[in-house]
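Lecture notes, structural biology module. Today: joint structure prediction for complexes of two components.
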Amino acid sequence: MGGEPTRIMLAVNESTIKGYPHASISSRKAFEWTLHKIVRSNTSGFKLLFLHVQVPDEDGFDDMDSVYASPEDFKNLRNRDRAKGLHLLEFFVERCHAIGVGCEAWIKKGDPKEVICHEVKRVQPDFLVVGCRGLGPFQRVFVGTVSEFCVKHAECPVITIKRSAEETPQDPVDD
Amino acid sequence: MGGEPTRIMLAVNESTIKGYPHASISSRKAFEWTLHKIVRSNTSGFKLLFLHVQVPDEDGFDDMDSVYASPEDFKNLRNRDRAKGLHLLEFFVERCHAIGVGCEAWIKKGDPKEVICHEVKRVQPDFLVVGCRGLGPFQRVFVGTVSEFCVKHAECPVITIKRSAEETPQDPVDD
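The predicted structure, tokenised, for the full assembly:
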């Protein structure tokens, strides 16, 4: 049972409360769970693949005060987005590096649930770990959940890690 | 990251084609997957908890030629069922023993999906592994799936392992 390490893909996103570069509570929870419950001391037996999907900022809400006068401005905007995403991934990569677990990390743009399933198909991890806010059925209707979609559609086994009660913010939609 | 081993519950059942004591294709698949992809060489880091749920034989179809004349007969029947279940569990326990992974195994009677979720609540494993026949949506309506119920209702993370295409019998409802 040596051979190639088990490749675990983790979908990670930024905190909706604190914003970039902070990882969401559920992403951090899923990451720590994977290290403690799966990887344990067998650091050479696993490789973690971190995928961060950025949702395109269609209405430009975050940049209401910006003026776009040239193609260069848009390019700068895209670079800024990218830099934010890289800062998020840095947290996970640094932690892996510190404990000696091999990893890769990358950013994609699009609808998170669609992109995650697409990347699973492309990268073919042994399984996928997704954090989840653990919303009730009522909240789920409006918020939708990436994890439920991945459980149904990803072409690999999927494990969903819920936040624990004490980690849940007052408004459970926050993370 | 030493300490207590990670406790993985596996729900296992008998083959619908070959019957007891043969394990279903999906149970064996889920078990082998857990050993190869999670446990790997770290045999002391994990403990496997095998739960086999026996469905009560309400219509007595398997025993149409039997005559029940006394309470003793029923007791014998129950003992026979139990023996069959133990033979099934023996397969998993022996394999664990051979490779040096700690384990426990037990039998419960009832509706598998309800009993599995109840046992998760009682035993509190770190996560649950369930095999799955990978039925299409049309077959699912009539067959129902234990795995889908557990993903929704079990009070721990759940990972569903599908049979691979080459392991699927001609009739995918068989296993």
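Point to remember: Helices of chain B lie at 25-39, 71-99, 112-123, 137-143, 146-153.
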